[in-house]
Amino acid sequence: MHMKRVFTILTVLFAAALVSGSAHAQIYGTGKTGDNQGYTSYQNVPYYNQMVRDALKNKPPKFDFMQFRIYYSQTPQYDPMSEQALEEMNNYAFIVMNDEDPERVKSAMLAYKTVVTNHLANIDVVTQALSLAKDDKRFGNPEFFGWVKEGLIRTVMISGNGYTLKQAYDVITMQEEIILMGRLRLRPLSTVSRKEGVVYYNMHEVQNVDTGRTFTLFVNTTIPMKVIERREEEAQSYTLDIRKQ
């Protein structure tokens, strides 16, 4: 399946995500400001790494999860679909839990921790890390991962109100959009993915599961969509270059 189309196939996943606000703290706005429109700068890697160290060290009470997500989306390891990151961490976790060779376990644990820290602003990775930590203390402190998870979710929740494109909620991974729907107690009825200027967005027809009210909800998907699109173009260009040789 074409990667950038996956963001449009959300209805079934949203329905499964229902679990139990809105200031306008936009991460990348509507295209007017040019804030981080799928922009990748490896110069921001040190800033992301420093925020990871700060989070791990003392869970700062005023930790800027919004900036944390922005820096993550500007790193080379940024995984908007979370597929590769989850596959890697689960493979390493399997070795840790099942291999009888202490050296292989030690090596796998180190690799696991590296994947988690590299993607600590990715809600999928943090959710999986939380689950593993609850089952096995070797994978870390569940309280820490719970703190990170709630911080990331809270940032998405205050990124907009979803009533218009200018007020759209901002997401950097597909899972953030799913969790957003669940936290808002919304059931998607239909979804249209569109692009207007430099802005990618999903326009959802939704229903509040408590009141039955139906309305349109806007979610800005510019950051993940631009990165997915750019990587697909790079992969296609690389394939064409190989064929010429």
Describe this structure in words.
The chain is of the alpha+beta class and 245 residues long. The protein has one domain. Helix content is 51%, strand content 12%. The two termini are 28 Å apart. About 13% of the residues have low confidence.
Helices and strands in order:
Layout: H1 11-16, H2 45-58, H3 65-73, H4 83-98, H5 102-118, H6 123-135, H7 142-157, E1 169-170, H8 174-183, E2 186-196, E3 199-208, E4 214-220, H9 222-244
Parallel strand pairs: 1-4
Antiparallel strand pairs: 2-3, 3-4
Helix pairs in contact: 4-5, 4-6, 6-7
Helix content: 40-55%
What's the domain count? 1
**How much is the radius of gyration in Å?**
19 Å
Name the overall outline.
globular
Q: What oligomeric state do the depicted chains represent?
A: single chain
How many helical stretches?
9
Order of helices and strands: HHHHHHHEHEEEH
In short:
This protein has nine helices and four strands. Strand 2 (about 185-195) and strand 3 (about 200-210) form a beta hairpin.
What characteristics describe this protein?
alpha+beta; 245 residues; four-stranded mixed sheet
